[in-house]
Specification:
3 strands; 35 helices; three-stranded antiparallel β-sheet; mainly alpha; Arc Repressor Mutant, subunit A; about 675 residues
Length: about 675
């Protein structure tokens, strides 16, 4: 054992003995093992080296110098070594006793590291014995069990775990699965699911929840059928825990995009919670949040906000303003206000969430990074690009510090920043970040995984914007292949891929192919989300664009109006998407020679962007076609004046607007309507 290691080991040993994670420096001076190290002020002494390297931290508390481990994870690792040596040759009972009797912060994590060492030595006996003890022991057993799955055959681990199956086994198995990385989880759960089928017939809610969770890892269509069969069979007998049973079914139905069924089961859960706990209980708040999530997935953001707000009120009442659950509630509210186009309100709520997180968990936490990322998105929507990229970079910096440059969480930030630069038309920068994200996702999730598909899709999105349609199709089709295999033909993400490919074919003027892909996309969207979802509106709008390109203006107007109706119903009249909808309708109506409707829609566009001179020009041209020459001239003059202010009198567009106003005024003997600066 090196001097540095001896020092760290002894500090952890004393922390375990004294049951405190921070020690007074002067109390260590006389320690037989490390006193000399601690007293030394030489730069090359072990203690000074560890302080300099940031392994240990000194703080002042009540005028005394205190020392602790800088990184808790490092402390847990060393503590695990201490526990291993102190309990060598002793069974699970000794570990349980230590866990229950020692109040040291980090004792659970230290025990966890001790058990990992056991697993690495091919000894599962103490791990299985501790699981049988239940209680606190299960938290310490989950990660070692997850490691056992990775080191040994899943069959061996499951044979030992389920030799005499109990609720403890089921509970720790759930916890262990959640500890696995996504790529590992997929492999493990598929096998675990089959073994559970053979060894366990679900008799209570906990066993049933594991059975339900395992369904997530099979084909989308199969999942739906299995869920329906389980509902009919009513396999769970634990009536006292019926609310949890309903809750889990609701969650699983939501996972397969069956939102009506999800709402049905979560509403059943809520009814039980209200009777059992009352209207203002944290359990009721949790169920309200799930109901809100269902509404959000359905695209009814107002209903989602209504339920999230109720949940937030309950959480503030019970936990106070500065609680992590309150922070999450603010975040959920913000996401839905953002979906409604209320970006300023969303930012305000995201910032409230961030303020709480910074106070409770500090500035270098993954959840804080999520807040910065969310704020960045809404700032981007508002066109505040400098502030947006600043927040995106904050998120990236945090994740890089915590995880490094090649972690799946860091890849999420690469993706967000890549899409930011795509929107700014900085395509090389966009590809740089998105292409960093792709190999990381492949490493963690494998080539054929929905997250990898999303990475391919986003790269295709950039090539699409660059008008390199060959490259765009290449990446879009890779995403589609993965989604068809892993998610099924009728999954929402598969529908997104069909939509993207259809739009590329539209841009290539391959209208027949474009129509086929866009119709496939619409079919999937309608099945999953119904007639009145914002995504459905997007698909209708895209079909409108396709027909507009082909000169089929009546059909274009039909689909544009269907899109507009949904957006008005879902978002109200203040959402920025309506500007696009009115613009598309105005242009299609103009091309279809329906000039009165064109004027109506162009005027509606101007309520969102009153400084856009082009719409006054369009309105002028529409009035000209209707032979309302005076109104036509008035609008041409407005357009010309705005262009003069924006670009100067000698600008090409300014001159064109002036000439149009002058020409029409002369032809209709309305020179008097022109201002002097145009007459000249």
């Amino acid at each position: 054992m090196t001097n540095n290691h001896l020092l760290l080991y002894r500090l952890a040993e004393l922390m375990l003995e004294k049951q405190q994670h921070i020690l007074a420096l002067d109390d260590l001076f006389e320690d037989e093992q490390i006193g000399a190290f601690v007293r030394s002020i030489q730069i090359d002494s072990p203690y000074q080296q560890l302080i300099f390297e940031g392994v240990l931290t000194e703080t002042i508390k009540e005028e005394r110098v205190m020392v602790t481990f800088t990184v808790e994870g490092y402390f847990h690792y060393v503590l695990g070594e201490v526990i291993e040596k102190q309990t060598e040759g002793k069974g699970a009972e000794a570990l349980k006793k230590l866990l229950e009797n020692n109040k040291l912060r980090g004792i659970t994590e230290g025990l966890e590291q001790c058990l990992v060492r056991d697993v690495e030595k091919n000894d599962l006996s103490r791990l299985m014995g501790l699981i049988d003890e239940g209680g606190k022991a299960l938290d310490a057993s989950a990660y070692p069990l997850a490691q056992a799955f990775l080191i040994y055959s899943i069959e061996r681990v499951m044979d030992e775990l389920l030799a005499d199956p109990t609720d403890n086994d089921i509970e720790v198995l759930e916890k262990a699965i959640e500890k696995l990385e996504e790529a590992q989880k997929n492999k493990v759960v598929e096998k675990v699911y089959l073994l559970i089928n053979n060894k366990i017939k679900p008799k209570n809610t906990r066993q049933g929840k594991l059975y339900l969770r395992s369904i997530e890892y099979v084909n989308n269509d199969i999942r739906e059928n299995q869920l329906d069969k389980l509902v009919i069979k009513n396999i769970l007998e634990d009536v006292d825990d019926l609310a949890n049973y309903y809750y889990e079914f609701g969650t699983q139905y939501r996972n397969v995009s069956l939102f009506e069924k999800a709402l049905e089961f979560h509403q059943k859960t809520l009814s039980i919670d209200i009777v059992k706990y009352g209207n203002n209980h944290p359990e009721t708040a949790s169920t309200l949040s799930s109901i809100a999530n269902d509404w959000s997935k359905k695209g009814n953001y107002k209903k989602a906000i209504e339920n999230y707000q109720k949940a937030l009120t309950i959480r503030i009442k019970h936990y106070g303003e500065f609680d992590i659950s309150t922070a999450r509630a603010y975040n959920n509210l913000a996401l839905n206000w953002s979906n409604l186009g209320e970006n300023y309100k969303a930012i305000q709520l995201f910032q409230m969430s961030l303020k709480i997180k910074l106070k409770i968990i500090g500035k270098n936490h993954p959840s804080v990074a999520i807040s910065y990322n969310n704020i960045g998105f809404d700032l981007k929507v508002l066109g505040k690009y400098d502030e947006a990229i600043k927040n995106y970079n904050h998120a990236l910096d945090i994740k890089t510090k915590i995880y490094g440059k090649n972690h799946k969480e860091t890849a999420i930030s690469y993706n967000s920043i890549g899409l930011f630069w795509r929107n700014r038309k900085e395509f090389d920068k966009a590809l740089n970040y998105l292409e960093k994200s792709l190999p990381i996702n492949i490493k963690y999730y494998g080539e054929y995984h929905p997250i990898t598909a999303k990475a391919y899709n986003n790269i295709g999105f950039v090539w699409d914007a660059k008008k390199d349609y060959t490259q765009a199709l290449k990446y879009y089709k890779k995403a589609l292949d993965i989604r068809q295999i892993k998610l099924g033909e009728l999954h929402l993400d598969t529908g997104v891929s069909y939509n993207n490919i259809g739009l590329v074919y539209k841009n290539q003027k391959k209208y027949k192919e474009a129509f086929l892909f866009l119709k496939k996309s619409l079919k999937i969207i309608l099945k999953n989300l119904g007639e009145n979802h914002p995504r459905t509106a997007t698909n209708y709008n895209n079909l409108g664009i396709l027909f507009n390109k082909q000169g089929h203006y009546n059909k274009a107007v039909k689909y544009y109006k269907m899109a507009l109706s949904i957006n008005l119903n879902k978002h109200g009249r203040n959402h920025p998407i309506l500007e696009t909808r009115y613009n598309n309708l105005g242009i299609a109506c103009f091309k279809n020679r329906n000039y009165k409707s064109a004027i109506k829609y162009f005027k509606l566009v101007l309520t969102y962007c009153p400084e856009e001179n082009i719409y006054y020009y369009y309105i002028g041209s529409s009035y000209k076609k209707l032979k309302y020459f005076q109104k036509a001239i008035e609008n041409y003059v407005i357009s010309a004046n705005m262009l003069k202010v924006q670009n100067g009198i000698d600008d090409k567009d300014t001159k064109e607007a002036i000439q149009e106003a002058l020409r029409l005024a002369k032809e209709t003997d309305n020179i008097k309507l022109l201002p002097d600066w145009i007459k000249k």
